[in-house]
Amino acid sequence: MASVASLSASVQQRVSAALAAAVPSAADADPLLRRSDRADFQANGVLGLAKKNKANPRELAAQVVAGLPTDELISEIEVSGPGFLNITVSDAAITDTLAARADDDRLGVPLTADPGTTVIDYAQPNVAKEMHVGHLRSSVIGDAIAKILEFEGETVVRRHHIGDWGTQFGMLIQYLIEHPHELDHSPADTDGEASMSRLNRTYKAARTLFDADEAFKDRSRKRVVDLQAGEPETLALWQRFVDESKIYFYSVYNKLDIAIQDDDIVGESAYNDMLVETCRILEDTGVAVRSNGALCVFFDEIKGKDGEPVPLIVQKADGGFGYAATDLSAIRDRTGNLKADTLLYVVDARQALHFRMVFETARRAGWLTEEVTVKHLPFGTVLGKDGKPFKTREGETVRLVDLLDEAVERATVVVREKNEELSDEEVAERGAEVGIGAVKYADLSTSLGRDYVFDLDRMVSLTGDTSVYIQYAFARTQSILRKAGAARAVARPELPLAPAERALGLLLDEFGDALAGVAETYEPHKLASYLYAVSSAFATFYEQCPVLKPETPEDVRENRLFLCTLTGRTLRQGMTLLGIHTPDQL
Ligand code: ARG
């Protein structure tokens, strides 16, 4: 394993040194290096530095250039505009750097210098309830972030904070006591859809009875008390609802091609034993106070529409604990027991206020210290084509499985049209990889906070910023390599590069930088747009730089095959980190 410094990092280092030589007080001035259309890179840092030192920017830039002789890395450097530096790297440096990447399993991507432990809270559906598009976003985004952080060398602890606790379980359990065969099925029946329909039926029946029958309502309320007290028979019945739901969750995650481990499902119920203590500490330390019987935390800056302060309620007046008490206990567990130094929450933007109040409370209580980074990564809403939150024609929330099935169906049509020789089995497999990939990519390529329209026609399109486009670029690299037969892929640093080869090469070199950017800001869309850029650059390369044509000289062919190989590896690795398959053939 050998990490490779990117060309941009190497150039940055040279320019920094030259800046420091020109202005000794600027030892750590940022040269502000960017990729540029005019040359390969542009450094804008001279301007600010000149201003600070009351120097003429163009003169200072010229001085920096004088201190930067062209060498095997930098082939050309010139001052432009008010004092920018335009920098071109040599073709040999590009090919050499890419060859070093190709030699490494990790494509030369370094591990983070200073890894820590990140607990990421994502993919948190609710027991006895259908999964909807909101759960899609949390799962897809969380899975990608977890994979990218792990690839960077961070220790990642996954937590699926499922909704498996609360007063509604009193009603469900009581109903099951009075209708004991409601959830029965043969042990061989592991069909997730069947599980969900049993749960749905039970939920609806219990709800109807609860609303109509006062005596049942009473028995249900008593059942909540038994559940919270851990009464064994009640707990055993509660467990049946959890187990039944897990069959369903696993079937959906399987379809979504997201691996969920049982040990990482640590739902709300897991913190039950901590709730009393959490509240006691908050009350003893004065962080929370009693207000009309409820235990509340107040915030100066958080007020409702009427101007009255909106408190975080940790315990209700009737003694019941809510969502906030559980989240506070989970923070105690994650920082205290799991020793996390970063806590991430991939949760709907509508819960932003909840998390703001929970984090602030945990800070006051000392459960979150300066050393711990905590972030709610809020995501926007999935919209229908009408621009309103995605609903069925009947106005109900859309079932996630229905969406996924439809995506796979559409993608299967595309796959079949594209390739008529495939067997039915291959079509089905690739249809799933393309369809699920399309849904994931549409989600991941939108920046987190933004809403997006769920438009399957666009998602499975072969053109535009879609996963299919990237999968297609990958498949094309593999098809060239297959057709190349005995021809070898060899990096040829002695060869000059065509513009399309340079453009592709410079992009391939940026893979590690793109990943580092995602790991720093938790924005997977940056990786998505990077992979799309690589795919577009590859399409141009494919058009302009024939690989296998007989007139292509052998050394040029070898170098082009090398670029195809590295493009394929980069796309596959990147897509894997987004949780998307890259079939060898499309
Ligand atoms: N189960 C919740 C929902 O479906 C999301 C849980 C988010 N995580 C948390 N720690 N509160 O809305």
From TrEMBL:
Motif ('HIGH' region): 125-135
Enzyme category, top tier: ligase
Main location: cytoplasm
Location of the protein in the cell: Cytoplasm
Domain Arginyl tRNA synthetase N-terminal: 9-89
Any Pfam family the entry gives: DALR_1
Molecular function terms from GO: arginine-tRNA ligase activity
Reaction(s) catalysed by this chain's protein: tRNA(Arg) + L-arginine + ATP = L-arginyl-tRNA(Arg) + AMP + diphosphate
Matching HAMAP family: Arg_tRNA_synth
NCBIfam families: argS
Family of the protein in this entry: Belongs to the class-I aminoacyl-tRNA synthetase family.
Protein name: Arginine--tRNA ligase
Organism: Streptomyces fildesensis
Underlying gene: argS
